[in-house]
Specification:
Layout: E1 13-18, H1 22-33, E2 38-44, H2 48-58, E3 61-63, H3 66-72, E4 77-80, H4 87-96, E5 100-103, H5 111-123, E6 128-130, H6 138-148, E7 155-163, H7 168-172, H8 192-202, E8 205-213, E9 224-231, E10 236-242, E11 251-258, E12 261-266, E13 272-278, H9 288-293, H10 295-300, H11 302-314, H12 324-343, E14 347-348
Parallel strand pairs: 1-2, 1-4, 2-3, 4-5, 5-6, 7-10
Antiparallel strand pairs: 7-11, 8-9, 8-14, 9-10, 11-12, 12-13
Helix pairs in contact: 1-11, 4-5, 5-12, 8-12
Length: about 350
Amino acid sequence: MSKFHKPDNSQPLKLGLVGCGHVAQKHLSALQALGDSYRVVGAVDPDPAARRLASGACGAREFEDLESLLSEESVDLVTLATPTGLHPEQAVVAAEAGADVLTEKPLGTSLAAARSMVDRLTELQRSLFVVKQLRHHPLFLAVRDALQKGRFGRLHTIGLQIFWTRPQAYYDHASWRGTRELDGGALMNQASHYVDLLDWIFGPVASVHAVGGSLGRDIEVEDTAVVSLIWEEGFVGSLHVTMLSYPKNLATSLTVIGEKGSVRIGGPRCDRVEAWDFAEPRPEDEEIAQVAQNVGSVLQCGHELVYRDVAAHLGGQQSPVVDGLQGLRSLAIIDAAYRALERGAAVEVSRSEHTL
């Protein structure tokens, strides 16, 4: 009989943290803020110094690999804060041992491997969650609410710009960064949260065309790309992303233009409303400046909000979690963009029973 079991709602969820690098610190801070909801029982990393640092922060046992953790500890939830290309294999190992899985974005660097992962965890009846904390971003939620209320009328075009910087030293810091197999480029890594928003807010994308490449960094993948998108409903848009802004992150902006409304959100973290105009004003328009002021505090606790939702979901409550099926939708768009980069032509976004 397996020693793994469905969590007792009255007890903290026993969590194994796999990957103790930079992003793991955000997970540890979130878990500490949630107090008794979780108990970290294992910190896993092949680097002794990294896992020792994580273990010291949460009081968990140290493990060199995931298999050792699963053989020695009873774990309810495994968090994968590892290089993206490792997620599918590690998620299946954890699920086969009886644990649910929370993975950092995106699901994987391969759409096929990610689909296999979703299939296997579904077969095992284990939950798969993806960290998409930008779905809590107050201004993106306001745009989505306006769209759902029909305030834009028929959409015409959408523009998303991500002008950030990642110096060569960032990629040189770890051998897996900037590789096709484990990391992916600006679209797969840095822009993936925003690709998720393009699907979650505006609906399914039908096809994409993309240009770009490694224009300023010595890496295997793109540091800059421009992607043209056509949504299934017929409106068009663009995603322009670069990691070459000098000398720091320059801007992140979203522009939405419809027949009855135009919105533009800018600033370093999409935290400034530059236009918010609708044919029919509503009371919430008067509060949009205050909503923008809340962005910083919400983003600061983004991982905490994700963990709160996961705990609620596993406890049988309704919560806005992002599951594996939703994670496949944005990964399918990124996969299409990569195929378009290779072919130099527009390609359709791959659809299946997972992503319809």
